[in-house]
Design brief:
By secondary structure, the chain is α/β, with parallel strands linked by helices. It contains 12 helices and 15 strands. The chain folds into 2 domains: about 150 residues, Aspartate Aminotransferase, domain 1, CATH 3.90.1150; about 260 residues, 3-Layer(aba) Sandwich (Aspartate Aminotransferase, domain 2), CATH 3.40.640.10. The strands form 3 sheets. It has a 7-stranded mixed β-sheet with strand order 4-10-9-8-7-5-6, with helices on both faces.
């Protein structure tokens, strides 16, 4: 157990010999279709701390890519998993019934935005939740609205339907065409690097008007658009936070033409930003909400929550053998209870505000920090060259040095440090990580 850890402990320069043995077997036996930031091998974890096979202890600033919101091995979640595993492991919700998915659905319809009646569909991942959203949106209109609008810079998954919405890096789509047709991409509101070369608020939200003036009035009939899919904060695209009035303007546009809003909360949801769902920061109620990652503290589970009148696919049109697995649902119920009982939404707000303050102070000291942005514990630190352009080499070197110093932090976008620790992190633990990050960045600048 790592309960007594208060700071990282690097005994052997990582990766150590035991880690290297696992890395070699991994490369031999597992398809290397994913890009890892550095060769960290996880053995065990507790709270915000992780240990590798060589006895090195690390502070976790990425939560297993936004999954371990309650920290690693939270006792209440572990107990719920054990209790359910002794009762029932699986019996396929698509053909039969059991109680835990119903209990979880009762919680999900309460915490998701909107007071209207809702229904839930269970999946196993974020990509599957997006796939379900695509089918529900198109199916609800019975094929009369085949188009979906998505945003460049956003990430929605790598299965073929989700990939058709994804547009954060060309490598994700390269070689897989033809993708699902009738998906139209428009620029995401990235104010630090506005794709329209304008300045907020003088732009008058041209990124929304562009959709109407140049998409719906030029080549995509609005009556054939089923939905607009978006991330409330662009994750893989660089932890980009839209301006305050963006989503209300987008909602107004969607309502004007009867277009549904698909809110991808896979990374930003379940308390990550200090609210149950990030879209709450903008006061907008989406029609469909895709959920995964943090919902079950590490067990595979996803969900699509939507207006009851829209979640109307007829029997036989969509299903999942493992979706709503009883053990995963039990873990999810415990996860939501921990977040409520331990006031982790409030902790994410307070520790996140403290981190933003520290990072902005760091920005004043280090010119290579071009932008600091985020909400709660979903924070991006964009690194730049002297001319203001992205600096991916500096990002890579900073992350590698931080890893060897005992901090697990990764990037997003072209050159943005992605800070997303477990929601149980304390202010003191955050300070430990930020000091390592600052020292790592300074050392990387010397070497870059």
């Amino acid at each position: 157990m790592l309960k007594s850890v208060s700071k990282p402990e690097i005994k052997t320069l990582p990766p150590g010999p035991k880690s290297k043995s696992i890395i070699e077997k991994d490369q031999e036996l597992i398809m290397q279709s994913f890009a890892r930031w550095y060769p960290f091998v996880a053995k065990r974890g507790y709270g915000v701390w992780l240990e590798d096979p060589d006895g090195n202890k690390y502070l976790d600033f990425n939560s297993g890519i936004g999954v371990n919101n309650t920290g690693h091995a939270h006792p209440k979640v572990i107990e719920a998993i054990k209790r359910q595993a002794e009762l029932l492991l699986h019996y396929s919700l698509t053909d039969f019934l059991y109680e835990t998915p119903v209990q979880l659905a009762e919680k999900l319809v309460k915490i998701t935005p909107g007071t209207f009646p809702k229904k839930v569909f269970y999946t196993n991942s974020g990509a599957e939740s997006i796939e379900a959203a695509i089918k529900v949106a198109r199916g609800h209109f019975k094929g009369s609205r085949p188009y979906i609008i998505a945003f460049s810079g956003s990430f929605h998954g790598r299965t073929m339907g989700a990939l058709s919405l994804t547009a954060s890096k060309p490598v994700q789509r390269k070689g897989f065409s033809p993708l699902v047709p009738n998906v139209v991409h428009v620029p995401y509101p990235y104010c630090y690097r506005c794709p329209f070369r304008q300045k907020y608020p003088d732009c008058n939200m041209w990124c929304v008007d562009f959709i109407e003036e140049w998409v719906l009035k030029k080549y995509v009939p609005p009556e054939e658009v089923a939905a607009i899919a978006f991330e409330p904060i662009a994750g893989e695209g660089g932890y980009i936070v839209p301006p305050p009035d963006f989503f209300k303007r987008l909602k107004k546009l969607a309502d004007k033409y009867g277009i549904l809003l698909i809110d991808d909360e896979v990374q930003a949801g379940i308390g990550r930003t200090g609210k149950w769902f990030a879209i709450e920061h903008w006061g907008v109620e989406p029609d469909l909400i895709a959920i995964a990652k943090g919902i079950a503290s590490g067990l595979p589970l996803g969900a699509l929550v939507g207006k009851r009148e829209i979640m109307d696919l007829p029997p036989g049109t969509h299903a999942s053998t493992f979706g709503g697995n009883p053990v995963s649902c039990a873990a999810a119920i415990a996860t939501l209870e921990v977040i409520e009982q331990e006031r982790l939404l409030e902790n994410a707000q307070k520790v996140g505000e403290h981190a933003m303050k520290r990072l902005n102070e760091m920005k004043e000291e280090i010119p290579s920090i071009g932008d600091v942005r985020g909400k709660g514990l979903m924070i991006g630190v964009e690194l730049v060259k002297p001319d203001g352009s992205p600096n991916p080499e500096l990002l890579k070197n900073t992350l590698d040095i931080a890893f060897k110093s005992g901090l697990l932090v990764i990037g997003s976008g072209l050159s943005t440090i992605r800070i997303a620790p477990p929601l149980v992190i304390t202010r003191e633990e955050m300070d430990v990580g930020l000091e390592i990050l600052k020292a790592s960045l300074k050392k990387a600048l010397e070497q870059t």
